[in-house]
Design brief:
The chain is α+β, with helices and mostly antiparallel strands. Helix content is 33%, strand content 23%.
Length: 141
Amino acid sequence: MESLLSTALKSKRFMSVYKEGLSLDLIRPFDDSIFDKMKNMQTNFNCNLYEYFDNGYNVGMGGLTVELLFKMFGEGEKVIGVLPAITGCKRSPKGEHSWLLLNGLIIDPSLMLIIDNKLSTSLGYKQINKERKKHNDRVKK
């Protein structure tokens, strides 16, 4: 699976907050419970969401991937913004980024991390636009 985490960790600021967040259990990687949900959700790409990630589509297609995560979780806020730590990478040269905000957590599909939202500013997440989604607004199958 492809992730931009290695790119983000080149930023000293991001690396420092990341290490502290891991030690305090405020940051965690996607785990089997997430992967199991992903395996049970079909996409319009002739694959399930796990296979979609396994093919690397989660990187560079953040907005669509956040929509798919919303469909899987059934709620949340789609956030479009910038993450300076990934600036310069091939798929996000200006640091453009999207994530799902759910119950005080950032679900970041490109980094494959679940992050307590109170770390968002210190990690560098900058919100430009946020769209609240509800269960009845779900993405069409």
